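Sequence and structure are no longer studied apart. As an example, we show below a sequence and the tokens encoding its fold:
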Amino acid sequence: MVKKHFSQQQKLSILRSAERTTIKDAAGVAGIHFTTVYDWKNQLEVLGEQTFLEYQVPRPGRGIKKISLEKEQAVIDTWKDNPEYGPGQVRNQLRRQRITISTKSVRRIMVANGYKIRKKKPANQNNLRFEASRPLELAQMDILEFFINKLKAYVILLLDDYSRFILGWSVLEKTSMDEVIDTVDRAVNRYGKMEEILTDRGFVFYSWHGINRFEKYLEMHGIDHTHASAHHPQTLGKVESCNKTIKYELLKQHHFSTAQEAMSAVGEWVNRYNYQRTHQGIGGLLVPAERFHGQSEQILSSLSQGVDIDAKKPYSVLGIDRSIFNLVIGPKGNLTLHLMGQPIDLTRRVS
């Protein structure tokens, strides 16, 4: 196939045509790939019209690497399946499928298909990032409002701080301390006891007068309870981020007629979040379940060897829950070993 060469004036004419239609349409008329027009557009914005027209393209050179239609479609499909993803996240998701493509190329394809580049917020030096050092050391918990058939409802999310794995969730038609306790209890029975839970000071989590039933439950089970600082949501940043994701992807995209319908949809979303979606907060190539289940090194090693990770069945399909020894010191100094979520009391005490 003969490579087409265009003068700077011809490039400018194609760009003007793209302004009247779209980059894809203009590229199609010119008989070139739309990412080429996208690169010209960037050059024009950086150089200005006069300098752009005077610019001499160096030859010979590699030129712009042509992207196969298969890769282009893979980018578009991945982005449509994960509309909240940025170019870097799409690139990481594709890498798990042994599809290699640069973030720059992914960005060009996404922009040409309607992606709006997000402006990065300036970093706030006062926000210190923290992270637990192992699974179940710390969990964050929060409640999010949404609507079921125009009536207010709530989603509870219990998130492992270290892995971003969702340990527990509930859909409620009204906030209930019993349901909050039940959400934690089900998570403990399934995955093991977390050592500490971080919440805000909402009434189901915290009492300004004495101690409420949720706090009593945590105390009885030897789970430390920490409260986020007032008017400082960054403390609960990980679960707040998860709230935004489920709100953007699911709760604002669907109309639920019944609580059962909402529960089914949330359950499917949580399963996908835990077992299928890569997470930028844990390196971009891992899904939360892989870090929670202690598979990080194995997965990263497989990726480096070109193994198609997503071709394997996820943990949820295989029916694998967390298999971990979780040793916790109780309030009276007694040691309790949790194996697969089941407590095994050890008789000796810590002196």
About this structure: The chain is about 40% helix and 15% strand. Residues 259-275 form the longest helix (17 residues).
